[in-house]
Amino acid sequence: MSISLVAGLGNPGRDYADTRHNLGWAVVDEFARRQGLSWQKAPRFDAEVARWDYAPGRTRWLVKPLTFMNESGAALQSFASFHQVPGTAILAVHDDLAIELGRVKVSTTGSAGGHNGVASLLEHLGDGFIRYRLGIGPKEPPQMDLKDFVLGKFTPAQLSLITQQLDHYLQGLTLLLESDVARAMNTLNRRDPNETDQT
Predict the structure, then answer these.
(1) Catalytic positions, please?
(2) Which pLDDT score, from 0 to 100, does residue 191 have?
(3) What is the pLDDT of residue 180?
(4) Which pLDDT belongs to residue 159?
(5) How high is the pLDDT of residue 190?
């Protein structure tokens, strides 16, 4: 089944811009910008939505929940239910602490791994949605509180690395949308041979 809905996970508001937890949101924002798409507030779904008519008679939706990370699944479930999008046709783009900064991985199963946004999606959508996992690890310093780390802003050096990797992030996203998931997973996950697959 092809992907019908691309969700960028993050927190709304200027205070959360450039934080590690908003990397998924930032990548989906840039993808929409390059496709020439515009975001519209959709209050009934607690989300910002961009409609992408990518081929004659074919539509995809880009969605950014405005519920804050912990309730992302409620907004996505509401939108997906209204548009009759099954969970297996949903791609969630989100940060992942278990993966090194600059790397990406794709998975379709597994636990939330401590990620509250993914936990909310699992609660409201069930397992089976596709996860495009953008590395933000490792946590430095190791003793730092997890919440403080993910809600902290990237350092200038980290932002520079993300800028360098932006095309890589978007190429991977495009591959997921244009290929079957198993093939995209094999290609993207193989590019990261030094990472252990932690979910």
Answers:
(1) 21
(2) 62
(3) 87
(4) 94
(5) 84
- 5-190: CATH superfamily: Peptidyl-tRNA hydrolase (3.40.50.1470)
Instruction: Kindly report the three-state secondary structure assignment for every residue of the chain.
Output: CCCCEEEECCCCCHHHCCEHHHHHHHHHHHHHHHCCCCCEEEHHHCEEEEEEEEECCEEEEEEEECCCHHHHHHHHHHHHHHCCCCHHHEEEEEEEEEEECCCEEEECCCCCCCCHHHHHHHHHHCCCCEEEEEEEECCCCCCCCHHHHHCCECCHHHHHHHHHHHHHHHHHHHHHHHCCHHHHHHHHHHCCCCCCCCC
How far from each other are the two terminal CA atoms of the chain, in whole angstroms?
23
Pick out the chain residues at pLDDT < 50: 193-199
Q: Where are the domains of the chain?
A: 5-190
Q: Which residue type, as a one-letter code, is found at position 42?
A: A
How many other β-carbons are positioned within 10 Å of the β-carbon of residue 42? 18
Q: Is 99 exposed, middle or buried (0-12, 13-18, 19+ CB in 10 A)?
A: buried
